[in-house]
Amino acid sequence: MLKLIVGLKGSGKTKTLIEMANSAPNNTNGAVVCLEQGDKLKFDITHQVRLIDTKEYAICDGQALYGFICGIVASNHDITDIFVDSALKICRENLEEFTLAVNEVASFVDSNNINCVMTASVALADLPAELHRFLQ
Prior knowledge:
Mean pLDDT: 96
CATH class: Alpha Beta
Order of helices and strands: EHEEHEHHE
Strand order of the largest sheet: 1-5-4-2-3
Largest sheet: 5 strands, parallel
CATH superfamily: P-loop containing nucleotide triphosphate hydrolases
Number of helices: 4
Number of domains: 1
Helix content: 25-40%
Low-confidence stretches: none
Strand content: 15-25%
Distance between the termini: 11 Å
């Protein structure tokens, strides 16, 4: 199941994601992964969560993000939770690309029984209507 956390900068999206990611290992017997662009979360995310900097793997658009998520799951079938901070930024701030990536990731995580949470800095009014079903 995919959930989106959206709002403008400073609205607490990342803080919420950090809390969710840090509590996830306590609620699963599987692996938890958190993707971010850069390394700003390295002191906030517990060592029990695999933190991955998407810049290190040249993940710089929606298709690459989707492919990377598929790849990490292919390499570790024990993943139960995936958190993605600033997903819209990873998608080059392109709402069409972001929408496509969210829909692809949602389909993938649903078929693999994985919980996924993504944050995006966008006003609710600007979020494409088809993504509203993913809002937390």
